[in-house]
Write a structure and sequence with these properties.
The chain is about 70% helix and about 0% strand. With about 190 residues, it is mostly helical. The chain has a single domain (about 5-190), classed as Tetracycline Repressor, domain 2 (Orthogonal Bundle), CATH 1.10.357.10. The chain is built from 8 helices and no strands. The chain is elongated, with a radius of gyration of 19 Å. About 25% of the residues are buried. The longest helix has 23 residues, at about 140-160.
Length: about 190
């Protein structure tokens, strides 16, 4: 649980990250200006600017996880697969700055919080379980491997989109969802 002022620091950081399309160019003085205080006030709530970035990172991970697994429980396996993949594709499109922040922007690993790794591993396990639920009766190891490959494909396409390396006017989301579903089917098909 964070204090209201610490929450304002995190919220202002996330607003700037969203506006700038990532954390590059976001700095302590700019965040403090948004919060309406001196930049030194940050040290009353965080050990360093990197500590603030890790708190913001944690907040984005929570948002990402809640988005990925939303509205899946009541769906049949095939519908659940399409909805899960659509969720994976939609998040980076809706939140390009935040996605770049958690996916590729550098943050000093000197103060890397252990709970971040725990959260990422728990999300990966939850993603594996969601994909397994979409393919009942399939070999679990095969589904997990397919999940890794499909996620890597979606991640790559998401960065193409974020970096504006797509054909103008193309329905990128539709193409990526369709390709990811086909790829998952091919990778989990018994030979």
């Amino acid at each position: 649980m964070t204090s209201p002022t610490a929450d304002r620091f995190i919220g202002s950081t996330l607003d700037l990250i969203a506006e700038k399309g990532g954390s590059q160019g976001v700095n302590l003085r700019e965040v403090a200006r948004r919060v309406g205080c001196a930049h030194t006030n940050l040290y009353n709530y965080f050990d360093s600017f990197d500590d603030l970035l890790w708190a913001a990172f944690r907040r984005v991970l929570d948002d990402y996880a809640s988005h990925l697994f939303r509205d899946l429980d009541s769906l049949a396996a095939e519908e659940r697969l399409e909805a899960l993949i659509a969720n994976l594709v939609a998040y980076p499109q809706s939140n390009p700055g935040w996605y770049r922040f958690i996916g590729s922007d550098p943050i000093s690993s000197a103060g890397f919080p252990a709970d971040i790794l725990d959260t990422v591993l728990a999300m990966k396990q939850q993603l594996f379980e969601a994909f397994r639920s979409c393919s009942p009766g399939s070999d679990q190891a095969l589904v997990d491997q397919a999940c890794d490959i499909v996620y890597a494909y979606i991640d790559g396409e998401s960065f193409n989109l974020i970096n504006e390396r797509v054909v103008p006017g193309e329905d990128v989301a539709g193409r990526v969802v369709g390709n990811a579903i086909r790829l998952f089917g091919l990778l989990t098909r018994p030979d």
